[in-house]
Design brief:
about 400 residues; alpha/beta; Aspartate Aminotransferase, domain 1; Aspartate Aminotransferase, domain 2; seven-stranded mixed beta sheet; four-stranded antiparallel beta sheet; 15 helices; 17 strands; about 40% helix; globular; binds 4'-deoxy-4'-aminopyridoxal-5'-phosphate
């Protein structure tokens, strides 16, 4: 097991200065930093074997195609999909959900049908379904939450009915850090034969994702939130659905035979990967997942749990702090406000101290409105953060309070 110093040395950016201060990076919910091995893997593509995949008969194309398909196998084993053909590479979570909303809508949705999401969703798991509902005359239903932000399961069960065609919920709320009871959500939907999509954008980084154990029908995530490059992500789907769903984009690589009269489509996963994909990104993401496996997912969870406990204890001791989303089921994300101080002011002052937090609605306006606020300060920590960094955040917040008193 690597020490925290060794882990931090793997991430070049963590050792940079901001305004001549040591960087404290607490914005891992927005994107994570990259270990040197991921940067090297992407560089290696461009330095040594760059070539378009699945196209040429030449050596470089073979090398890049093989590395790309190996990355698919790495993803498949990381999330434990039954087949690696069930892993579709996309530009990210948002693209995955938009793709599915289009294809699923075309294949299964008619006027009056219903889709269920929760109050905790990121806009990426709301708006594509609204667009699809508008196109198809379907209706979006929303699982309500308790005042602490946990979803009300009883109300969810009441929403399920014969018109429900899909349940699409996040595994972890990006705004509050609350972990949703996805197993119960999936089991209830399945008992009525309704498929479930899990938005894993935050879950993949803070959990041990096993799509077969979870038994979800679709799972989506972004590479950049799990120490991989930007512009690459995954749409996992159960083969039976991916076989039935129509492609959402046409072009090269997704076809079997093209004539002006009729085109037939390629097999899985290529049917959903039209055009030149971000193969360098996929290879980098594969390396990131290997890195996470090398550190150990259990170890990561333990380190993050310890950070969360420590930060909750320290932050709760600050006078006039309001913490949103208090729950036993939480990842290392804390959302809060300081009474009578606007989140942007606090965020800007912290920034000058070298502390990067996120402020605003976190692309989750409905849950902010549910709390009657226009945003929070969010500290999202991950395994490379330290208890000393939490102390610096607390010190910084105390200074903010002092400045405004
Ligand atoms: N869903 C959740 C829960 C997220 O946290 C995010 C990113 N903040 C997204 C979806 C969208 O991810 P991306 O911007 O990588 O497409």
């Amino acid at each position: 097991m690597k020490s925290i110093e060794e882990i931090r040395a793997d991430f070049p950016l963590l050792n940079k200065k901001v305004y001549n201060k040591d960087l404290v990076y607490f914005d891992n919910g927005a994107t994570t930093q990259k270990p040197q091995c991921v940067i090297d893997a992407v560089n290696d593509v461009y330095l040594n074997y760059n070539s378009n995949i699945h196209r040429g008969v030449h050596r470089l194309s073979d090398l890049s195609s093989e590395a790309y398909e190996n990355a698919r196998k790495t993803v498949s084993s990381f999330i434990n999909s039954a087949k690696h053909q069930e892993v579709i590479f996309t530009p990210g979570t948002t693209s995955s959900i938009n793709a599915l909303a289009f294809s699923f809508g075309e294949r299964y949705i008619k006027s009056g049908d219903e889709i269920i999401v929760s109050y905790l969703e990121h806009h990426a798991n709301i708006v594509p379904w609204q667009m699809m509902c508008e196109r198809k005359g379907a209706v979006l239903k929303v699982i309500p939450v308790f005042d602490n932000g946990e979803i009300i399961l009883e109300e969810y069960y009441k929403l399920l009915n014969s018109r429900t065609k899909l349940v699409s919920v996040t595994q972890v709320s990006n705004a509050l850090g609350i972990i949703l009871p996805v197993k119960q959500i999936i089991d209830a939907a399945h008992s009525a034969d309704i498929p479930v999509l899990i938005d894993g954008a935050q879950g993949i980084q803070h959990g041990i994702v096993d799509v077969r154990k979870m038994n979800c029908d679709f799972y989506v995530f972004s590479g950049h939130k799990i120490y991989g490059p930007t512009g690459i992500g995954v749409l996992y789907g159960r083969e039976k659905f991916l076989d039935e769903l129509p492609p959402y984009q046409g072009g090269g690589d997704m076809v079997d035979k093209v004539t002006f009269e009729k085109t037939t489509y390629n097999e899985l996963p290529f049917k959903f990967e039209a055009g030149t994909t971000n193969y360098a990104g996929a290879i980098g993401m594969g390396r990131a997942l290997e890195y996470v496996t090398e550190i150990g997912r259990e170890n990561i969870l333990q380190m993050e749990h310890s950070l969360l406990q420590y930060a909750m204890e320290k932050l709760s001791a600050i006078n006039d702090i309001i913490i949103y989303g208090k729950s036993d089921q939480k990842v290392s994300i804390i959302s809060f406000l300081l009474k009578d101080i606007h989140q942007y002011d606090a965020g800007m002052i912290l920034d000058k101290m070298g502390i990067a937090v996120r402020t605003g609605t976190h692309c989750a306006q409905p849950i902010m409105e549910r709390f009657g606020i226009d945003g929070t300060i969010r500290a999202s920590m991950c395994f490379y953060n330290t208890h000393e960094e939490v102390d610096k955040l607390v010190e910084g917040l105390l200074k903010v309070v002092e400045m405004f008193s």
